[in-house]
Amino acid sequence: MEASQRLRIAAAEVAALRALDGVDAATRARRDELRAWQARRLAFTHADLLASSRYRDATRFFLDELYGVKDFSQRDAELARVIPTLTRFLPQGALETIADAVELDALSERLDLATARVLVADPQLGGAPIDDDGYARAFRAAGARTDRERQVELVEHIGRALDRLVRQPLLGGLLGAMEGPARMAGLSAMHAFLASGFRAFKAMKGADAFMKTVIDREQALMRRIWAGESDPVRRAGQP
User: Fold this and answer.
1) What is the distance, to the nearest Å, from the Cα of residue 118 to the centroid of all Cα atoms in its chain?
2) Cα end-to-end span (Å), the chain
């Protein structure tokens, strides 16, 4: 499937999921609580990367732009309008990276909503604050392992692709030139997303060690959860 088609499908899915049509108030509240908990978990797992002058910006990009809890509705609306422009002007590698990011967005939204429903419906979890073991129980019940593995795979694809893209000097110039027109066209949030990822990875000057660390940790945590280990996040700590 071409990147532009993947992008259209994933953009439509993520916009529909974020609309939360037919989702009850309890599930909405649990989803918001879950996403805040996951943001804290990621910051704990990768605290050393956040503290590193070399890796801080790239880590913050992943936590804020790919796993963030902020309102992405403006970016969603902009994306639907900007796809034809992206298809015409961006190189294929950049378009594939955006398609991966939006697919990750849609998959994460779907899994978060499924996990929130488990947190509401499970009598052992309903109403209780989320903790390591409760999260792990809901994580296992909410989605197929292949979906969770796909999340990590997409994170790696995006990181590796950004590392390749920053080596293309013309792309940096293109993003810089697009800032004013993007703002005038009402596409500032979409442009900010693209530009922040480019800047973060360019400043890192090589992403191999960073990506290996992130992916190894996320895969190890996933294995602990699927194995049913107790307190998986705290036990994992910082490898």
Assistant:
1) 21
2) 37
Whether residue 176 is predicted with pLDDT greater than 60 in this model: the reply is: no
Q: Give the C-alpha distances (Å, rounded to integers) separating 24 from 29, 116, 128, 141.
A: 9, 11, 18, 20
pTM of the model as a whole: 0.83
The CA distance from 98 to 81, in Å, is 14
To the nearest 5 percent, what fractions of the chain are helix, strand and coil? 80, 0, 20
Q: What is the dihedral of CA 90, 96, 98, 100, to 10 degrees?
A: 180
What residue has token string 């066209």?
185
143 vs 76 pLDDT, higher one: 143
Check pLDDT > 90 for residue 237.
no
Has residue 75 got a pLDDT over 60?
Answer: yes
Measured at the CA of 211, the angle between CA 205 and CA 203, to 5 degrees, comes to 20
